[in-house]
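REVIEWER CHECKLIST
Item 1: Sequence provided? yes
Item 2: Single chain? yes
Item 3: Sequence as submitted:
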Amino acid sequence: MKARDFIKPGEEILVLMTGGALLEFGEDNTALTGDWVINPYRSTDRVIIYRRNNDTTNTLYIGNRSDVILVQDKYKIQLTHVQYIGKTILNWFEFAETHSHSVRYIS
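Item 4: Structure as written out by the authors:
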């Protein structure tokens, strides 16, 4: 599966690739991830997090973007209703259908 497969009709999703160092999960299905160079005014419905693991798989999460927090010219993204959606063996370029950027908007 690719990121595009998780999009509902009319929806825009932000897809982020991370090693997980700045990814924090709350016990109430929330998460905070950063530091990202994004347009905080660009509307997105949901966020997919592609977390690189130390093995051959990558872990996937999806959540609703609830807020962005400016921290020294970059942004942390707050998420609600975060769910584990599986693992993938696809590399970042295949999964997000992108080149070298770790941030990808898909609609």
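Item 5: Key structural point noted by reviewer: The mean pLDDT is 94.
Item 6: Recommendation: ____
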